[in-house]
């Protein structure tokens, strides 16, 4: 197995297991692996399990670890095709995912080190069902000599093979599912295509009955060409019951574990604050703030139900960090400031509490973007000049330029990042 890319033998079959940073080290100088460390929903997983087709290892899928080992064994296919990967004192191990005597899954077992007078000789696994231990290197076990299948593991710096970092980060989407709110808008559609091109499935939700035909057909074409799937659901994100119903219904269609949310839904209105309509302000706050919170809550509940880790990205705005010259959008600016603070607050709760799986929450603050929503103000030459000259790059952004930052925040490349806001505004707020 080539877990992280790199040079390989021509005869070998390889699959991608993730970034180094996504594997916690199960053994350090201060700890002993004989201390119980089960994979499951009650603790952050210390290993990953993959369903690997021997005929085509490149089409591997990560297995979602469930708390009930027996149900897990029944639901996740043939154990003979499963491989367990974990990091032990800085080194990676990959073994056939079975006990030799029972095909019992070892992902719920305990990795341990074998020591003799303080010298680490080897590493092994303990079967959770029988309590028998297996030396990964020699094949020796408590009751007999068993030969566990040992897979080759390679590490690679993503920059060392000349590929773009973005291409490597895209691999995190593979065999995962994401929900995008505002999925009928320019930003949401761009995020959807990014997920689909990278091997993941996407569910787009928006308040309009149907997406615009031409943009949605482009999404479907990307889905078809990459063997992925895309769905569209009408949803009022300000209605908790509607959001819950859409999430529940969409999960019936899902093929892969649900890994996260990108909350793009939002509206804006321009009017002098001296007589800004309060009803309009309430509508903006309801959609941009309350709707975002409802969707983030529902996504976190689904991630908790599945027992997996996840990442949530909230789309805020540079308007959260300052007033935009010549634009009277007091309610919008206030709402986006709330979104930035919401990301911090949710991150604080969902990153460290034992009863909730690890969910990272970050926000992105875009600058001015060429979208359908900005067509009207950009039709005014003075406004277009003001917006263009307002940032250090002297131009407006395009929706596709936010693929990289969103991919980064969804991926394990940002595994030590939560509660952060990433400004992607061409330097507008840095003047």
Automatic annotation (TrEMBL):
Q: What is this protein called?
A: Rieske domain-containing protein
The record's family statement is: Belongs to the short-chain dehydrogenases/reductases (SDR) family.
Its taxonomic placement starts with: Eukaryota, Fungi, Dikarya, Ascomycota, Pezizomycotina
Where on the tree of life does the source sit, at the highest rank?
Eukaryota
Please state every residue range assigned to the domain named Rieske: 61-162
Q: Name one GO molecular function term.
A: oxidoreductase activity, acting on NAD(P)H, oxygen as acceptor
Alphabetic keyword roster: 2Fe-2S, Iron, Iron-sulfur, Metal-binding, NADP, Oxidoreductase
* InterPro entries, sorted: NAD(P)-bd_dom_sf, Rieske_2Fe-2S, Rieske_2Fe-2S_sf, Sc_DH/Rdtase_CS, SDR_fam
